[in-house]
């Protein structure tokens, strides 16, 4: 009960209440007290309510919906894809491991690859869940089923790892990540592991960082049993190790077990550093390092000019290198039977890699019938073939680039924000200077486009 306004006013004036003045009233929202039914049970008549009457007319009530069962996907098999081209030049791409490392094999078959690269765990995290026995068994079974040879598989290392960092704690963190990757490769039965050598981060000389990298390789070779560590050449940022072939040579010279170290040549990176032709590049590499150490190549055209010291990947034939340079590579018997891996932009469409692989395989057929012809300028007689293949690449890229731009307009803001956050996390994790990080940004983006 609450006091009425009239009673409150009279009390404030000190005037007495009269008989007609109500002193209190019930709360406005007070619920009526439930009055029990005094009638005997026999007198209570139960009548159907409206809902019951409607139900009686409409029939039985609606049954609860059954839980939707997940659609079972058919297990991919080799006959689902076009037969791969038989060639001594093993062309492939860096394919996605989304959904399980065993899916890389299916993704490689989908684009017609005779070789492939993969990440054996997230390349943007220091640690990842371990491979399950099911992952390993499925990977090995599919390798056999689809006819892939481990010597044409080139796993790529984490972009966080810097074995040349003079800070001992940070270098140890890199080493643990590096070692974990190699152990995963061993479980999967893989032979190679490709990695970026590292950076001085501006706190050491290049000679000091080179020695630190070699020490880590000697250590990891003792902590594992078989995987060959494959050092990738770099593009020339000032603190990055590996842009000069002599730096790769100096690392190898300090490695005890030289049977477990090799080199991967990236065409975009050597163009950025040396700015000359493939023939002269290979001659320099053979003189300073030795072709016996060449374990694989990354086939990328370049968006930047010769000697730019920038690693900006472009689709095959559309950049500075041009298609004749790749014909020269695929006419060279010295690069037969090693993985030749694309890291070019795909615009989130695997059809781009499928087209590029077809073009490169066609060039290898031309090279096989005519042999190496020397400098790119001497390939004029094949101009018609090259123009035809270049048209194929331009057509498929135009289609999927335009489609991606159209679809991506609505989500551009969110995507840019997430990429910015990812780059920030990467810089915080590695403490590598901005110009050093830019050295691997393009191949990181092209490789992870299907891998996230």
From TrEMBL:
Domain Xylose isomerase-like TIM barrel residue range list: 107-361
Keyword Ribonucleoprotein: no
HAMAP family xref list: Nfo
Annotated family: Belongs to the AP endonuclease 2 family.
PANTHER family (alphabetical): APURINIC-APYRIMIDINIC ENDONUCLEASE, ENDONUCLEASE IV ENDODEOXYRIBONUCLEASE IV
Keywords: DNA damage, DNA repair, Hydrolase, Isomerase, Metal-binding, Zinc
Molecular function GO labels: DNA binding; DNA-(apurinic or apyrimidinic site) endonuclease activity; isomerase activity; phosphoric diester hydrolase activity; zinc ion binding
Domain of life: Eukaryota
Regions of compositional bias (Acidic residues) in chain numbering: 431-440
GO term, biological process aspect, one: base-excision repair
Matching SMART domains: AP2Ec (SM00518)
Region (Disordered): 1-82, 401-452
Name of the protein this chain belongs to: Apurinic-apyrimidinic endonuclease 1
